[in-house]
Design a protein that fits this description.
The structure holds 2 protein chains of 2 kinds. Chain A is of the alpha/beta class. Helices cover 41% and strands 15% of the residues of chain A. Chain B has 2 domains: 58 residues, no CATH class; 69 residues, Glutaredoxin (3-Layer(aba) Sandwich), CATH 3.40.30.10. Chain B is elongated, with a radius of gyration of 18 Å. Classes of the chains: A alpha/beta, B alpha+beta. Chains A and B meet through helix 1, strand 12, strand 16 and helix 18 of A and helix 2, helix 4 and helix 5 of B.
Chain lengths: 503, 141
């Protein structure tokens, strides 16, 4: 009986994987539901004896079984998109059944945890520090130092919290890992808990990811004995983007409004319920089991460039021909990612801009596609690596509209705690509208007699732009968290490189 | 089961949790389609909070609503990656198809950014939508 492997990842399901699986089952095949390879333009992707076929529709089933299908891509593992990657965190992608403990153990699962438990907590932290692992949520803070701070804090309770509130547009790596390899995240969290002395863990998942929530809940039950005495509970978000900010996430778990907390105190000192808390992104925690293997820390450290060590699961999205998950060492350029690997735009038109790092990331002009993927290099040009999401836009994109959207998004998602973000974002939308509709006179509110300080004469375009830049400065340096603080990046980068779109 | 008993059941099911408010609100929203004034008061009483505190949390999160909307909800992602793949060009057709019958809601990111435009109906996801596919989805909803 032919064995067919089809992903049950949410993205494959959205592309119709269930119907294809049912068609193979009806044809008498054994169908195994595995994680996704991350070759998203080929989903639903079907694997028969190592050979891939995609994108599949139920009608293609008979041709695949007869060996006459034109949708073959050859051996999946040898496909250039896969062969060029260095998959450490996503080593199992496409190969295992997500909830199978047998598959997980057979592919090296729990080896990191077993070795960690044979070491002292201090040694575990030393190895994480040695690996050079930095927070993958966007801030890039060294994971080992964070863990050390929590380990050194004296408290009766400590927590490990996994930030799985992956709200950035252009990112799905957390989702893929939680759905495709949930034990891997659980193992990483359990190692963190052992290292810092925590007994309770929480995974905070956004409500937009129902499939990930289901998989995690099942995986936690099935692996409870293995991770004991550590316990993990899934907490579901409620549609607030700002809850991806760590302190607002902690408030949300506590049952409060997802408002950002002022720092200090750091979560490592006073985090969840006021106790010392390790809070790390999914990808940070999922990098840990590999690092804790014999020689794993040195191996991890051998990847990457300068102070950006290890691998980054990069997500190629938006208007790109071959989109999907591309895990590789730091240092790769946008040019390689977009043209050599991604094949250019899906529409076939020229690339106009890419946004790296989610809605708060800068728009990067094709002139800078030589920029190596690395925290410091990006920071040097006012851009963000963020969570590794890359959104490609073709030449039909209106950068003025996208800049306005950045401000509008900030206004919609602001928690309201600090003034620059709460009010500045709305003023930003208005200002961009004015710039785009200039020349204009004073508006009706400004002309009211009680508006003593308002200018009665119209403002020139240059004056409005100066005002927008000034507002962005206030947002950048006056906001409590990255939502208000980074919204200027997409706005100012769009204004700088594509001023013609603001007329 | 009447609603008071259902609410009491939700409250007792979550009694042992640390930080139980969000899980309770999710359960109440799922059971009643909203979290109204009376439910807020009951929850506040059970958790030893003021109703203002509970209301503050309910009103903060996009997933919770004070009034039930009987219409079916279709969530359409309109974040940057779906914009890059042309979602803005199909919104108008979606709105026309939705009319008063279906609630077409904007969502920021379903994590399907390489195969957008994407939509969600309940727990079912749909990708690679064009105007015709979106209209068909809404009409079948």
């Amino acid at each position: 009986m032919t064995l067919i492997r089809i992903s049950d990842d949410a993205l494959a399901l959205a592309c119709g994987a269930d119907a294809v699986a049912a068609a193979f089952a009806a044809a008498g095949c054994t169908v195994e539901r595995v994680s996704s390879w991350g070759l998203h333009w080929l989903e639903p992707l079907v694997e028969v004896g190592g050979i891939g076929y995609g994108p599949m529709a139920p009608d293609d089933v008979s041709a695949v079984l007869a060996g006459t299908s034109t949708k073959s891509i050859g051996m999946i593992a040898e496909h250039p998109f896969i062969a060029r990657q260095q998959r450490l965190t996503f080593a199992r992608a496409g190969k295992t059944r997500p909830l199978s403990l047998d598959d997980y153990s057979a592919t090296g699962g729990w080896a990191g945890l077993t070795r960690a438990r044979s070491l002292s907590p201090d040694q575990v932290i030393a190895e994480v520090t040695q690996s050079g692992l930095r927070g993958r949520g966007g801030a890039g803070f060294p994971a080992g130092i964070k863990w050390k701070t929590v380990a050194d804090a004296a408290a009766s309770h400590k927590y490990v919290v996994c930030n799985a509130d992956e709200g950035d547009s252009g990112t799905f790596a957390d989702r893929m890992l939680m759905e495709g390899d949930p034990y891997h995240l659980i193992e990483g969290m359990t190692i963190a808990a052992y290292a810092v002395g925590a007994s309770q863990g929480y995974i905070y998942v956004r409500s937009e990811y129902p499939h990930a929530i289901t998989k995690l809940n099942q995986a936690i039950v099935l692996s409870a004995d293995i991770i004991a005495p550590f316990r993990i509970e899934v907490r579901v978000g409620a549609g607030a983007y700002v809850c991806g900010e760590e302190t607002s996430l902690l408030n949300s778990i506590e049952g409060k409004r997802g408002e950002v907390r002022a720092k200090p105190p750091l979560p490592a000192h006073q985090g969840l319920f006021g106790q010392p808390t390790v809070i790390n992104n999914v990808l940070t925690l999922a990098a840990v089991p590999h690092i804790l293997l014999e020689g794993g820390a040195a191996h991890y450290d051998s990847h990457g460039v300068a102070r950006s060590k290890g691998t980054m699961p990069i997500q190629l999205t938006g208007n790109i021909k071959s989109g999907g998950l591309f895990e590789t060492a730091f240092g790769i350029t946008l040019h390689e990612l977009i043209y050599d690997i991604g094949g250019g735009t899906a529409s076939g038109r020229p690339v106009k801009a890419v946004q790296v790092g989610g809605p708060l990331g800068a728009y990067i002009h094709p002139d800078r596609f030589d920029l190596p993927f690395c925290y410091e290099e990006y920071a040097g040009v006012d851009a963000l690596v963020g969570h590794g999401g890359i959104v490609v836009f073709d030449d039909t994109a209106d950068m003025g509209r996208l800049a306005r959207f950045a401000m509008q998004f900030c206004a919609a998602e602001s928690c309201g705690k600090c003034t620059p973000c709460r009010i500045g974002s709305t003023r930003g939308v208005e200002l961009i509208d004015r710039i785009r509709s200039s020349p204009r006179g004073a508006d009706s509110v400004e002309l009211l007699p009680q508006m003593h300080n308002a200018r009665k004469a119209g403002r020139s375009r240059e004056e409005d732009i100066a005002l927008l830049e000034d507002l962005c400065e206030t947002l950048k340096f006056g906001s409590l968290c990255a939502l208000g603080g980074f919204t200027p990046y997409p706005v100012l980068s769009a204004l700088k490189h594509w001023p013609e779109d603001f007329t | 089961m009447n609603s008071a008993a259902r609410l009491a059941e939700i409250l007792s099911a979550n009694a042992g949790r640390a930080g139980p408010l969000l899980p309770i609100l999710h359960d109440v929203q799922a059971a009643f389609g909203c979290i109204d004034r009376d439910a807020e008061a009951e929850i506040a009483e059970a958790l030893n909070l003021s109703r203002a505190e509970v209301h503050g949390v309910v009103s903060f999160y996009h997933d919770f609503s004070a009034e039930a909307d009987p219409r079916l909800v279709v969530q359409l992602c309109r974040a940057e990656a779906c914009q890059a793949r042309g979602v803005e060009e199909i919104v108008a057709a979606g709105e026309r198809a939705a009319g008063e019958r279906v609630c077409l809601k904007t969502v920021y990111c379903l994590g399907l950014c390489s195969v957008g435009p994407a939509a969600r109906v309940g727990d079912a996801l749909h990708a690679r939508l064009d105007a015709a596919a979106l209209v068909a989805l809404i009409e079948a909803a």
